[in-house]
Amino acid sequence: MIMFRYWKNLYRKYTSNNDRGARMDNAGFCNETYESLHNPASDDELVDIAGATLDFSSTEDVPPLDPEYGSGYGNTGYSNGMTGNGVLMDLLDEPVPGVGTYEDFNTIDWVREKSKDRDRHREITSKSEQSTWALLHSISDAFSGWLLMLLIGLLSGALAGCIDISAHWLTDLKEGVCLSGFWFNHEHCCWGSNQTTFQERDKCPQWQSWAELLGGSSEGAAAYIVNYLMFMLCALLFSFLAVILVRAFAPYACGSGIPEIKTILSGFIIRGYLGKWTLIIKTITLVLAVSSGLSLGKEGPLVHVACCCANILCHLFTKYRQNEAKRREVLSAAAAVGVSVAFGAPIGGVLFSLEEVSYYFPLKTLWRSFFAALVAAFTLRSINPFGDSRLVLFYVEFHTPWHMVELVPFTLLGIFGGLWGALFIRANIAWCRRRKTTRLGHYPVLEVLVVTGITALLSFPNSYTRMSGSELISELFNDCSLLDSSQLCDYNSSENRSDSGVFSASLADRAFSNTLPDRPAGPGVYTALWQLALALFFKMLVTVVTFGMKVPSGLFIPSMAVGAIVGRLLGVAMEQMALNHHDWLIVKGWCSSGADCITPGLYAMVGAAACLGGVTRMTISLVVIMFELTGGLEYIVPLMAAIMTSKWVADALGREGIYEAHIRLNGYPFLETKEEYGHKTLAQDVMRPRQSDPLLVVLTQEGMSVGEIEGVIADTDYSGFPVVVSQESQRLVGFVLRRDLVISLDNARKRQDGVVSASLVFFLEHVPPQPFSGPPVVKLRGILDLSPFTVTDHTPMAIAVDIFRKLGLRQCLVTHNGRLLGIITKKDILKHMAQMSNRDPDSILFN
User: Which N-terminal stretch is annotated as signal sequence (predicted)?
Assistant: First the structure.
């Protein structure tokens, strides 16, 4: 993950002044003029991303040709022919707009971007000693990163609070309306009522169901049917609005966003994916999708929302607007902010960004991520969206310590979590692949409406599927006390009554301390267990088809709900076993009759963590998120045992988590840092050209005309060209990007008098004397990369792959005795690794 640690050693080992040049496949560089680069060839040029038809011609994210972007990268000079006194005249000394930038759907050059930033910082530092104004500029430049983190935390926290409040209100709107104010949700509506009872504290005259509003009665079959129909109608309306808004205004707003965020953080450019329209539409449709009752969560999309905020705010600061590598440091911090506001877990958010999504995470980014997550959590706490003055989403207060014997059922929950995670990934990927390859993907609106209708139809009769995912998890985490009216807390208390029929003194003392001994389950508990079993199968099936639809959809809450249900079922079973068989050898050593031995809510919490770990393969960050999420700090060991067991089991059945699987499904050029390369191939086995391929297209450092170079550009779609001394020697001089070459030649024709197709192009520092009568020459030394990375043809591919991962390279040149043989691109690496894993190498989507 720390990709620049070995720069110095790798430069010495693999780079030489004579080993330079390359080519890259990239259809995005097929345009030939400055205008064609700036304006997409067609507004209908569409690319399929995550099963959706997305328009990659959008330039909303960052203008491809920022007039200020080229500054600091290098000057491109265009020189006239030799005058009579033999002096070469440079007619253009200022940077060319667009040189040094990247086209859409391309990979950045991490080495070049970090070099640009070092040059900029060195220039600012040297100038700060010359004047007071320059010193203030240096201070503001150093402080700008912290200011940016502050703004990201404030904006993300505010948006997350608004999303939480709006989603809660719309979810309750499916069941009724508050008469004292339609903007109140059910809980807030009944807070101020004096006519509520403790047993029915969710019922008050101010809140009326749709049956009461439309029919005047809340009882009977007619009222049930009216509430049923309104529930389904509201769910269909919310999901329809969500999918229509996504389809019409921001196709990138669909899905979780985390696979694409991981790809972008690895250096890929998808313009518009983090733009303002994506932010607006994702914020609105996320509320609608969650409120529709679909089996999805808002936690994953909140990471996307936070990254959109960060990308937009980066445009306020020059050093982040003009440097793609610096911007990705900010996006890594924004990913931490997203988890911080999603779960109220700032430390877990930082670890999530470090463990799960970030590709390059220096220590400076760690500090800033922590600061931004802190600001976001404070902002969310100030808004208080849950109304309980707590930052945690599922606050628990367990009064019984866990016992060593319970590690066995905790491990069983981990095994189930791993099995469920592997099964879910395979089933969901198979369904998404079917959506991409059949006519099902042509009707996204119809698919969303059908899934929503089925979900609403089957979920309403069961109270545990009718409630939102967050409410369900909170209910399952709950530790029963005498004051709870939930079905899950309907225990018989006959064995704890005295002969007079009143509670004994010991029971009264326990009730006062909010702890109760284990009691036999009552009819309400058994009814709840059957309903939870049905809800389990329903959640498992519907989540498979829901994740990946064309609405914002997160996976954290549905996965946690599945695990929490299984954990609660196992917890109640363990509780009843300890109660009825306290004389068994495995029980009597730590649980005596009448004691409070088992906490079913703890099993639900461990099961939720195990299933989420099995699906995402998170470990350290998940443990921290869970104890921040619940406040259960003393239960870290059970969580660690279950999560590690879940990861081991899931990895035994499949190495990829859900996000990596979707990255591979969509063919994103993402080089996974966790995947080891275990083959014995060499660089010459992977490089191009192969024996049957045409020769490598190169440019010479002198002797080629403008017309010849433009012909090479028109006849090929490579992203760059090596520059050699001559076609015969193949001795390398450097490497030039196609985009920089196109822009520079077009600019020379426009701004330098006399440049024609016959004008010669030189990549030399000193241009040799030219005849008087010839057209002026074009000097392109400034856009030439004089230090591309090179390896020999006998370099093991394991080393080459490690270089690509740690340095974020786009290409690496292959030489033999100083002569250019070929090139290995990131695309070649991914195709070769896919082929060695018996996968389709053509599935790699690179432009």
Answer: none
